[in-house]
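Translate structure to sequence.
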């Protein structure tokens, strides 16, 4: 059966209410939503944190985000990185394009995707393990909201996922109509740090 094979595609991605999903949406999410465990090493994580932490400490926590998806967070853009981190981020940049990619640092967490029109029916959970990479493209990026579950709600398939302070390094493309394709090869990274 097609639905079962799609649901078991990745043990870090969990679909809720699968009998209610149209096959085309389920297939699109399965093909365009990726989570890769241990994408970076412990040493690479330490190098990234060494470069990020001094800047993050100076920022105040913000209470509301433009998309209402995060609460109590600090955010900044960083376009230039040390030589070691540039090498690490070059591996992440290849997962950009018409996508959003992120690397989770310091803690595991659960990202919940909800369809913008059917928020209580089409729900997908991504288990973002520490040092993992997630990639969203297609309708997963544009037709679903994205949220990191708070400590008290942090569960994956009914199992608690202990969550502590986390930092997410996010790579997004500039809109293609504003930049020539050649200029999109190296994208700015956004660093997010939240405590909920």
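Result:
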């Amino acid at each position: 059966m097609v639905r079962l094979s799609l649901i078991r595609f990745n043990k870090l991605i969990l679909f809720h209410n699968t009998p209610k999903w149209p096959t085309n949406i389920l297939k699109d999410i399965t093909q365009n939503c990726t989570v890769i465990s241990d994408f970076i090493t412990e040493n690479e994580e330490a190098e990234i944190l060494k470069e990020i932490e001094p800047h993050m400490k100076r920022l105040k926590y913000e209470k509301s985000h433009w998309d209402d998806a995060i609460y109590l967070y600090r955010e900044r853009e960083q376009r230039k990185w040390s030589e070691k981190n540039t090498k690490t981020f070059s591996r992440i940049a290849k997962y950009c394009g018409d996508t959003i990619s992120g690397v989770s640092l310091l803690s595991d967490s659960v990202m919940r995707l909800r369809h913008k029109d059917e928020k209580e029916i089409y729900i997908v959970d991504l288990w973002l393990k520490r040092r993992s990479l997630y990639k969203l493209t297609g309708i997963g990026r544009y037709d679903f909201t994205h949220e990191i579950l708070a400590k008290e709600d942090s569960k994956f398939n009914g199992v608690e996922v202990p969550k502590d302070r986390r930092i997410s390094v996010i790579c997004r493309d500039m809109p293609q109509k504003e930049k020539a394709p050649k200029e999109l090869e190296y994208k700015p990274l956004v660093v997010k740090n939240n405590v909920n």
